[in-house]
Amino acid sequence: MFQSDPDEGYVRFLTDRIAEGIEKAHSRLAPARAGWGGAAEPNQVFNRRWKMKPGVDNADPFGRTTDKVKMNPGYQNPGLFEPAGPTDPEVSVLSIRTPDDKPLALYANYSLHYVGDLPALSADYFGVFGDRIGGLLGATDTGFVGLLSNGTSGDVNNINFAGPPPGKRVPGEQSRVVAEAVGMAAKKAAMATNYRGDVTLAVAEKEIELGVRKPTAEELVRAEAVLEKATGRELKGVEEIYARETVLLAKYPDRVKLKIQAIRVGELGIVAIPCEVFTEIGLEIKKTSPLKRTFTVSLGNGYNGYLPTPAQHALGGYETWRARSSYLEVQASDAILKTAVELLGMVTK
Q1: CA–CA distance, 282 with 303 (Å, rounded to integer)
Q2: What span, in angstroms and rounded, lies between the C-alpha atoms of 152 and 300?
Q3: C-beta neighbour count of 2 within 10 angstroms
């Protein structure tokens, strides 16, 4: 994103690895029992969008000062008023065990962004969790698979800006702390669930079309002027970076297609949305789902940027700034939420 472009070689590499993973999984089919549940881990999630006090300077990259919210505002910023949204502390799990009750696999979901204290190319705390959860469950089979997906965390990270800065930590330490905490909650949920061998499956998906927030002619002229001044050097600062995004988005189609998916495993519902979904949307899906337990996977089946609610759009802030990282129409979350609940209804019939 921003000043980077896709590495075509990696795109091809990734496609092959996904296909190999499906083949390997199919080759290992075996009798199993499944269980699902959840446990709370509230200490690792904080809404990173803060409403700022009146009068606080809060400019966006487009020359406006109408934002009422600031993302990652800094520790104990005197301009902080209150978080702009909720968090979801639940660690949801789909746990798989062998017929003789040995851990075989565990798939968890937690609504927290990446942590970012590992080297640039890493699996972040998701990978640390995958490596650790088997040991927490007492798995002895070297083929045990542990997975953690990103829940509805488009406005949530691991930083408590209301408190003081934490002490200095070595690279990777924070990822290990978070993975351990999430792992302990996942273990608690897995150990408390009832496992069944008579589990039925269902899948439903729908492609919907949504509008793109494209720049006006005046906004495009302004962006081109900003970029003209930066000719011949690397772009610096949000104004120049978002000017490039404005020019690129002007070439986007007026509407784009998204795939929304719902999966049922027994009495567990899983929704997949190709966006970085705000937490309140995920909570609403849980509340309105016809299934007793449901969780949502962000960045599922594609990438269409951040997904704020219309009310969050009105507050402004980084996640709403028009760019390839946030370009769907303001009402997009309403259409996606409606589709997700419809698909959950279909898989429960």
Answers
A1: 17
A2: 11
A3: 13
Can you give the pTM of this predicted structure?
Answer: 0.95
In 3-state terms, what secondary structure has residue 262? strand
**CA 206 and chain centroid, separation:** 20
CA distance 186 to 189: 5
| Predicted local distance difference test score (pLDDT) of residue 6 | 83
Number of domains in the chain: 1
Digit-coded pLDDT (tens) for 171-190: 999 999 999 999 999 999 99
pLDDT > 90? residue 3: no
- Taking the C-alpha atoms of residue 7 and residue 18, their distance in angstroms, rounded to an integer, is 17
Confidence class for position 278, pLDDT limits 50, 70, 90: very high
Q: Give all strands (DSSP E) within the chain, no chain letters.
A: 33-40, 46-47, 49-52, 69-71, 80-83, 90-97, 103-110, 145-150, 156-157, 201-211, 255-265, 268-273, 276-277, 293-298, 306-307
Domain enclosing residue 142, as ranges:
31-206+254-347
Residue 298 lies in a domain: yes
For the chain, give the number of residues: 349
Q: Pick from 210, 206, 207: which is nearest to 335 by CA? A: 210
